[in-house]
Amino acid sequence: MADPILQVRDLHTHFFADEGVVRAVDGVSFDLFPGRTLGIVGESGCGKSVTARSILRIVERPGRIVSGEILLRRQTGAVVDVARLPVDGPEVRAIRGGDIGLVFQEPMSALSAFHTIGNQLIEAVRLHARLNRKRARERAIELLAMAGIPRPADRIDAYSFELSGGLRQRVMIALALAGEPRVLIADEPTTALDVTTQAQILTLMRRLQQQRDLAVILITHDMGVIAEMADDVVVMYLGKEVEKGPVDAIFHAPRHPYTRSLLRSIPSVLARPRSRLATLSGSIPHPFARPGGCPFHPRCPDKLTGLCDTTVPAEVVIGEDHATACHLYTTQDAKVPA
Ligand code: SF4
Question: Which of 41, 91, 190, 234 is spaced 20 to 30 A from 261 at the CA atom?
Fold first, then answer.
């Protein structure tokens, strides 16, 4: 396998509010490789989007990265720690949209309603390449065609509100690729779309990834999307990674009780008619009332009372590239729960 293009090491991003500190990201590490998709999955509030925003240095105040490394191999070959760069400095601005492209969940709010999609694309193209306006417009049309927009030469002068949700998301993908990035971060890119359009967008992303050898970070709450798209998976809960590994290991030999719960909540075509979907008991704790010990213990069906509620589990390697943070795999008599 090629060298990783991005290495995140023990990242911590916290929000400092009057009421207390929210540890939105509280220890996340992973490697991202060219041509592969890393899925980051968990319920809303687990820190997956803040992880992405930390990599792009767009965490809003009162949040900030407090520790950890974000090592990016840039197009020049130099490795920089993005976490240490000045947040509004020229290098971060060049990385954002240049080395790393971003696709948001809701293109309607990410795209300007006051400028045509063409003008937004031309501006993005010229931010990262020295092209005159005519050549940049041609490049913008190429990008729209590449993103599967029919009649791109006509559509380039449309406004975002004139397009369907699926076309708007294709425009977002064209915008994200305008700077020729080698890393693409897609934050819930299909959540707002109907099932058919969702499948089309995922197919498009896979095709573009193969054509460009893109390294993709796909953020989602949907294990079905992970199964479809990811090569490697990080499962997050309350800011922590609780399990990570190749997608086959996560789906066929999940270890952490939270991963197992997420998998049980996927609808199956083999389920008996009218059978109930498994749901996770309890809800995510309030950010200011974070439980001690394992953060999942108030909801965990397998918790070891006296241990799980007092001691934070360390991450344990349990297979090739497969690790989990759970006391079931550190105690002598540990058994994989049925
Ligand atoms: Fe459950 Fe304990 Fe494992 Fe946490 S450490 S997931 S509470 S068994």
Answer: 190
Please provide the DSSP assignment of 223-249 as one string. Answer: HHHHHHH-SEEEEEETTEEEEEEEHHH
For ligand 1, the distance from its centroid to the CA atom of residue 11, given in whole angstroms, is 22
Helical (H) or strand (E) element with 286? none
Do strands 63-73 and 6-17 pair parallel, antiparallel, or not at all (unpaired)? antiparallel
Q: Is 178 within a domain? A: no
Q: In what order do the strands lie in the sheet with 315-319?
A: 100-103, 183-187, 215-220, 37-41, 232-237, 240-246, 322-325, 315-319
**Tens digit of pLDDT for each residue in 201-250?**
999 999 999 999 999 999 999 999 999 999 999 999 999 999 999 999 99
Q: What pLDDT, on a 0 to 100 scale, did the predictor assign at position 273? A: 58
Beta bridge partners of 240: 237
Whether residue 301 lies inside any domain: the answer is: yes
Tokens 């008991």 -> residue: 281
Where does residue 269 rank: exposed (0-12), middle (13-18), buried (19+ CB within 10 A)? exposed
In a domain, residue 215? The reply is: no
Distances in Å between the Cα of 182 and the Cα atoms of 72, 96, 155, 307, 326 are: 11, 11, 26, 44, 34
d(C-alpha 312, C-alpha 123), whole Å: 48
Domain coverage including residue 279: 254-329
pTM, to two decimals: 0.91
| From 235, 240, 259, 304, mutation site for ligand 1 pocket: most ligand atoms within 8 A of C-beta | 304
Residue to mutate (ligand 1; options 260, 311, 326, 335; most atoms within 8 A of CB):
326
Residue 286 lies in a domain: yes
Closest atom of ligand 1 relative to the 294 alpha carbon: 4
Q: Do the bridges between strand 37-41 and strand 215-220 make them parallel or antiparallel, or are there none, so unpaired?
A: parallel
In the sheet that holds 6-17, the strands lie side by side as: 20-32, 6-17, 63-73, 79-81
